[in-house]
Amino acid sequence: MNKIMLKKGLFWALNNEGIIFYYTNTNLRKIIKSENDEKLFELLKFISDPKSEEEISRYCSNMEIKDSNSIVQFLLRNKYAEILTSEFTIENKEKRIANFIGTFPDTAYKDYKYHAKNLKFCFLGLGTAGSYTLDALLKMGFYNATLIDNDIVEEHNVISQNFSYADVGKSKAKILKDKYNNLSPDYNIQSKSEFIKNFKHLNEIVDLTSFDYLFLFADDYLLTLEIIENIFSVNPNIKLIQSGYAVLEVESIVITSRNCKVILEKLKNDHENYKSLKGVIVENSGTILESYMIAITTVKQVVDHLLNLSCTEYMKTDFLTNEYFIGSQFEYLYNKSSNNKIKELIYNIKEDLGKESERWIEEITNENFFINNIIKKPKLDKKQYEYIIENSNNESNLSFFVKNKSHLESNEYVLINENIEYIKKHIFDKVLEYVRVNFTKNIYNSLKNTIENEYIYTYRNKYINDSSLTIKNNNSIFIFNCLDGTTSNYNMLIHELFHAVFYFMGQEDMYRHEKFVFKHHMEMLTFFKEDDIFKILYINFIFNHIHIYICNSLSLDYEKYTLEGNINKFFDKWGYDDIEEMIEIVSSNINPFSPLYNYKYIYAINENINTFINHVENITLNTDFSVKV
Fold first, then answer.
1. What is the pTM of this model?
2. Distance of alpha carbon 319 from alpha carbon 247, whole angstroms
3. CA–CA separation, 584 vs 561, rounded Å?
């Protein structure tokens, strides 16, 4: 019989405001209000131990709680509760793991447990880096590991590794295999007490195609290089985690078929630099701090990938300056330039509640749409002021775009049926080709550098912000654009790439930026429109900008007449038809903290209006540009 159990790890609390969960985490904290919070909280306490639907229904009937089924469905839909079945149970020994995993928003322990049981790991080296990583991995609910190390335990190992004095003189691999297999019958630990001569030897003693992860914890640097160079031809889906420590620093990186060439080149350069030294005096300084740091962060890298929490591929620790980083290579590069904006976009979980006093206009609703909603007169820049004084958009242009609006609905979000990474690379290649032909060699090299060195973040995690952004920070350009497989989203990536180009040209003005980006985005898509992918991107670009022009013309006029104090002029121009649609457009397009925020996009189109109109006419009249959805 299926049973429902509340996730107690979310920390539920009752106070005068209502029922709060994620009580101790201010970023995630939420509140539930009901007709009777006390009764609802008692129900939550009741199902904090597993209960069947029949038991819950009977309890609610006795307590006079209405809509028990709706309450249960709400908890399950939002993953605030787990369903226990004959196939899926949570044993007492795994409750802590279940509680921990269950606290990640929109995450079910059931999914985690299934994958954790099936993932297979191979350890190459069981010293300071590897020995406690095994312990941490198994205690996070993973089961399958093959251990490779020919070393025996020495006395000095005990202080920093997962061994005792009773283990001195014994095989590291066999000790850890026996220790953990004896701890639980669920563990499947194999061991090989062998010295690995080269990649071929490794591939002979274990089946590398069977592993999901290979942990490179061996001291043999040349062997590590050889493995990275060859393993992806044997198992293209395997993930390597290479960890090590130096003077007061610890580093760990996830290596895949995607990034292996760049990392391999860096490691080879490091090795060449090391070989060029005339002499070295050094002794191993690894302690339990390095050991635990590697263990914790390695397992977190695995967990994050399993749950799709983030692209957690890099760890860097500095024990002197107390800098501890774990995340993507992109985040690390950006953090070095000391700006937190990217972090806020990648982990979009905290609502900004402190901006209400900065609003210039009330939230637009059905009730207040027909009145002036200005709160305070905001400051305008020169271009915005000219827009208010000189008049709004050319009405003949607006009429032309409205006339062609019927083509918009079926084309705006056409999916391209290809792998996202393939499309991304295709876009990078074509943009670079266009820039190479049309701009200086320095601009081309700067953009190429930005792409190759991962200053562009496109990974879509569970908590991502959908914004696209290009930031110049400390003479570096960072692009944030998370790809979701839609044509509009791919076009936004191209848009941001041209912002980067304009920054490389030394330009900062936002209006000139948007004008430049619009012009070259359109020209580039036209240049490559015989390409199957770019043909679809081209059509989507045109129709999206028809949509942008119409919607922003409407919302900007509403802002303009609000700022002028004569909202009736808005209705004189736009009329009273389709009020519900108008309210939706205005409310979704107005930035309540920055007046006329979208004017820069209208400005860009107006500055290229004749060319744009020609493209619209070309598509609407040319049947060769039909799109297959």
1. 0.77
2. 9
3. 18
